Prior knowledge:
The chain is α/β, with parallel strands linked by helices.
Amino acid sequence: MRGHAFTDDDSALMYDVENPWDPDGSMHERFLTDAAVAVDAVLDVGCGTGSYLHTARERGAGGRLVGVDPDESMLARARRRTDIEWLRCTAAEMTFEAEFPAVTMNSNAFQCLATDDELRASLAAIRRAIRPNGVFIFGTRHLQARAWEAWNPDNGGAFTMPDGREYRGWFEVESVAGPLVTFTDTVASLDGTPLRVARATLRFHTPETLNPFLEEAGFAVENQYGDQKTGPLTDASREIITHARAQ
């Protein structure tokens, strides 16, 4: 539901400000930015406000850049750059055919594919979009780390919008059903009055549950890392960063 004082457009702006794409501060983001500069086309699925593709263009990417997202408020901010193609749709609704040597999904957007049917349809569309031997790079939180256990109002905090408005925000878990975690994301006034409450379900993965879906879709897992610094995937890893090759 939407509060009168904090709109979907405000939420997109807040996301953009709080989650800048920083290739100078992140090894993973530098790798993806450099990759976009090196190839002739990149498709970013779940592109959000477009920060990755904006930065890639600014850093010298001269090829075709395409961002896909189902959220119109996020895309409205992405469209500040008109030298990038922006498409409003889900991953499963894409109709590209062997057009990209590289496809990415950043910021754990992969976890929004909650059901088996969503996963299969989305991976099939991504596989169709990639050229033979192209690469699909994405990340997801590792199930074993149980990140949702820290999602509670006690771990919330205050934030300030660029125009000076101040709010409080917090996550709160509603249910955990195996790998599926349903939670709410609340934005409130400083006195705690809720202004906007968004609900979502995310799917957490292990390599053992994730990789069969990739293989079924026609990908071979080339590398998997336990963090964005290309650290090894271990029993203590909090993430699964996957580089998969189209077969």
